[in-house]
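Exercise: predict the fold of this chain.
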Amino acid sequence: MTAQRVAGWVAVVAGVLVLVGIASSAIGGAGGPITSSPTAYWPMGPGMMGFGNAGPAATTVPGAAEVRVQAANFGFTPSEIRLPKNADVNLSLVNPAGTGVVHDITVPELGIHVVANPGETRTVGLRGLAAGRYDAYCSVPGHADLGMRASVIVE
C-alpha cells in the first residue's frame, strides 16, 4: 500500500469520526449547529468569551501584542501557546480556507473560546491572565480526540 493510499484512508476515517461525533452530539442534545455562516458556534460554558450566536463578539485590546494560532486538521500551530501574565494581549485564531470545517480554541480555565469558520481569523482581547499552564483544545466534537490540543503557557 502506498503512502498516498494510507493518507487517503486516514483522511476518510478522520472524516467519518468527525461526522459520527457531530451526529452523536446532535442526538444527545449537547451540541449546537455548525454551519458555514459567520454565526457558526459551539456551545460555551459560563463566562466563556466567543463569537457568533454565543454572544457579542469580543473586542481586541488596542495596542496590545498579538499572538496568532493556526488551526489545521487536526492540530494547532504552535502547539505551545505563550501568553504574557498580567498584561494585555490579543489572541487570534486563524482557520485557513483549506480546512473546510469550523475550528475553535477553547481554554476553560482562562474563559477563552474563539471560533473561526474556514477562511476566517478571529481575535479576542485578553487582560491580566494568571500565570500557569493550561490545556487548550478544539471543542468541535471529535477534534480534540484526533489530536487538536495545545498547551497555553502564561508567564
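Check your answer against the key: The chain is about 15% helix and 35% strand.
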